[in-house]
Amino acid sequence: PALYFHSGEREEKCIIEDVPSDTLVIGNYKVQQWDIHQQDFLESAPGLGMFVTVTAPTDEVLLKKLYGPQATFSFTSYMSGEHIICLQSNSTRLMAFAGSKLRIHLDIRVGEHFLDEVVAQAKDKVNEVSVKLGHLLEQIHHISREQNYEREREENFRKTSEETNSNILWWAILQTLILISVGIWQIKSLKDFFIAKKLV
């Protein structure tokens, strides 16, 4: 998804991306710095670095690297689940930057694949078609993996729902039995009371 968010100096901002296994994820970002004189965000933030950290669902760090104010990063998931992508500015050597605001534009593409630029730019039409076909096949495999992942999630949700419904049913039966037992006990107690008082 393409989005932007604001951040302060050295402030870490994270997003969660649900990714199927064995999937390439490509992220593009651009940082704009607030200019107090123009009262607007500048188109570029020269000299500013951004730490990019990607964490797998098992808390394993897949990527931790310092980039510039505008960059592309990528990683491949080895398991399905929620991956955490964090960005943090590196502004220790920019004393004038202290307390400034940043606007970070971020675009995450899941299942994209890099095309070999040399082959993609080849004049031979057969090679070009072959590369495009390979790219389409990769996209098909990605869609298939994503469908399998969604199917697994749906199955887990269905199992959880069935277990919950079963528990609710047994709880309702138990409540009914308790109410019937209490009712019978109250009737018997009242009957014994009336007999004892010789009202019946």
UniProtKB/TrEMBL annotation:
SMART domains referenced in this protein's UniProt entry, alphabetically: EMP24_GP25L (SM01190)
UniProt xrefs under Pfam families: EMP24_GP25L
Keywords: Endoplasmic reticulum, Membrane, Signal, Transmembrane, Transmembrane helix
Subcellular location: Endoplasmic reticulum membrane; Membrane
Domain GOLD: 12-110
Any Gene Ontology CC annotation: endoplasmic reticulum membrane
Positions of transmembrane segments: 168-187
Bilayer topology term: Single-pass type I membrane protein
Keyword Transmembrane applies: yes
Main location: endoplasmic reticulum
Entry's family note: Belongs to the EMP24/GP25L family.
Annotated protein name in UniProt: TMD11 protein
Chain's gene name: Tmed11
